[in-house]
Amino acid sequence: MAAEMGPTRMLSLGYPDIVADLLAGNRRLLAFIRNRIRNPAEADDVYQETMLRMLERVREGDVRQPVPYALRVAHSVILDRVDTPVQEPLADDLPCASPAPDQVVSGRQRLAALTSALRALPPQRREVVVRRRLKGQSRQEIARAMGISEETVKKHLTRALAQLAAVMGEDGAA
Amino acid sequence: MTGGSPPLSPGGSPPSEAMLEAAADWVLADEPWTPARQAAFLAWLAADPAHARATEQVRALWKDPALAQALAEVAPAAANDDVPRPFLASRRRALAAGIAGVAALAGAGAWLRQVAQDRAAPDRNDEYATAIGQRREVALADGGALVLDAASRVTVGTAGRRLDLLAGQVAVRVAPAGRPWRAQARSLAVEAAEGAFILDRSAGQVDLTVTAGRASARVDDRHHDLTAGDRLVVAAGGGVVRDRVDPGDADAFRQGWLVVRDQRLDVVVAHLARYSPRSLALARPDLGKLAVSGRFRLDQPADSLRLIAGLYGLRLGESGDGLRLG
User: Which segments constitute the RNA polymerase sigma-70 region domain (chain A) (predicted)?
Assistant: First the structure.
């Protein structure tokens, strides 16, 4: 009994859990493969082969859940490799630890860095980010309100996020 | 494909801006996450170990509350206006002013000015909707705000102060300004002059929780006066029940928590389903009335369901492409 659900119009305030699930799924897949194939080059081979097979099947419309499917494919790719030595898995196939944040930069410093990085953005780009992230407007709404194309809105958002992420560096993880 | 760091090994130089931009493209996706899109993303992650790092970096920044704070600082005036429709808005204002001007000359009272306002802003609605797993906050022209839960849909009167909840859950903060807010969800009508309330449609029932101030509700011809902490439930069968809850618990969905005390299991599952790409179902309908209490993470619907299964001695299994409880 699913909840009464509205249409799947994507008006994202930017909290894509599916990306988080897929990142975690990817780590599980890597752990699964590495646990069974010691040699890094062989393991990468299995990884790439798995992806290729999965993409083929997805195109045929056979796959609903890519992550569990990828795990099954990896398993069969490994079994198919007669010549590759396969280890018994060392431990439970726990996902690799997520990347640990580096030392915590003070909250105020981060806020200051973010504010100045935002002020350094071209005004139109900054306005697009404000509308999307602060006001929760969709690409279509932003495009209409600002008189620009949706493609331009998309470009502004991705460029802005990339620029800000580059400035904040890898210890910017929340 | 990278020629640098060896495959499947962590470390290496920080991702380039081009790579961060590609990651941002995935993170900000407006297109639905079909299996094909998910597979393509996984394949992109596989192509270079730096892709996953770039995605984590970009995603963390986008979710970071400090980003919203910084944005609010650089764009202070921007926080309160609704989506502007420049030409139509100014024409409407001119029409309203024109009619009001005539009304003033004619010495007519406030009611005619109201008519002028209604005429100038005819009964049009803006629709706001959210997808699975995504909440949305909307700042309103009158200074109030809406927070939509995931997988929810509301229509809001363009002239403001009116809302119809079509699906899901919405928290409304009412700014005191002129006419009271009127909200509707199926047979339940709410009126509030100020304060805040939450409307929810789950498992065939309608739930109204007043989280601040006062509101009055009408179901069929009965009126109920409610204050902060009051909850009114119109059950699927039509009966109306009144209850007391902690407003903080009701508001917790905004921080990603489902906090319930003796809530029906079918309602709990409905809330979790808004965050689950897989369908969630109960094995038997009569399980729906099982009373559940606890704090559950909305962004981990499967884990939360597992926890509930453990707490209440229910089985959790896969069924088709979804999960089934009981």
Answer: 27-82
